[in-house]
Hints:
43% helix, binds 2'deoxy-thymidine-5'-diphospho-alpha-D-glucose, two-stranded parallel ribbon, 333 residues, binds nicotinamide-adenine-dinucleotide, 12 helices, alpha/beta, globular
Amino acid sequence: MKLLVTGGAGFIGSNFIHLVLAERPGWEVVNLDKLTYAGNLANLKHVEGDRRYTFVKADICDAKAVAEAAAGCDVIVNFAAETHVDRSIMEPMAFLRTDMEGTFVLLETVREGTVGKLLQVSTDEVYGSILEGAANEGFPLRPSSPYAASKAGADLLCLSYWTTYRTPVVITRGANNIGPYQYPEKVVPLFATNALDGMPLPMYGDGMQVRDYTHVEDHCRGILLALDKGEPGEVYNIGAGNEMPNIEMARLLLVELGKPESLIEHVKDRPGHDRRYALDSSRLRGLGWEPRYDATKALAATVRWYAENRWWWEPIKSGELYRAYYRRQYEER
Ligand code: NAD
Ligand code: DAU
């Protein structure tokens, strides 16, 4: 089995590559990534020397580069995307391009070439805010942010390719992931690294927004299962059911690090902020998926990783690119 993993230098993609190379000895991985601000080859330094692993620097919107990288591959697993909601509110264009046009290029690559399947990694944000109960795969798509809308557009394009051309595509929709190698713009690594440096934790609004904080390893195992056993044309939700309001997550994180609650600073809310996400993942559970991390264990393991791996995040946070983003996003909030 030879996989083309797109966006493999990001948070979830790199964790997925680690999992595949560790648990599927006969498999090969080609990682195609544009290396945007979120792509980081340091995430993959432990597999650099593995003969089963190759890296290609390219854009998923570049059809020729994708076709070349895809030659001889059995499947494409697409993690490549612009992924941060706040950035999509600032500058939506890159989201439409990569998340929608990029997915179109991958679909065409499968439709026209010899690759057997596309696994499209999507998100629970496509359902919008779920105030009660949990969204199953048949729920209407009501995205709130330009990010979520571009992911929903990509999902619909994938499903249309299955309906129209019978292009084999499987979609997974994951909940909020936490774990190693997450860019410190996302709330858990941001709060953990700020707390470690004694800096405030900017809590949007009242902090009562609920997220299902699923460990990235559980998510990656779910994607692998959907790749093995998922039906073409189907969607599989992947959420551990670790629902928690942000304020509670921040308090637990601070206790874990031995830092005071006074670091929490309430700031202006995110526009269009979804109040709650909740997934019904029984379809994937029916195939045998079972999360290994509950909320407390996932959060504790994640926070410990950032405490022990300053080598990974300090160069990012001290760089001018990150600092400029932080000033723009938080300084006058
Ligand atoms: P990330 O931002 O950490 O990484 C994205 C990767 O894609 C980076 O390596 C980046 O360089 C690459 N990339 C961006 N544009 C590209 C392009 N045009 N061509 C090639 N590579 C490009 O993202 P993540 O958090 O790892 O998310 C991966 C996927 O999982 C995304 O599709 C996202 O929508 C989805 N998802 C994320 C979460 C989450 O909680 N982080 C949850 C559910 C689903
Ligand atoms: O649900 C899956 C999605 O999870 C993925 O599709 C996205 O790619 C990923 O970024 C994530 O989206 P969120 O918007 O939920 O994640 P974020 O880490 O940005 O925010 C999580 C919650 O924390 C949300 O309620 C907003 C809040 N927050 C976030 C930041 C960055 C704060 O209170 N303060 C902050 O500084």
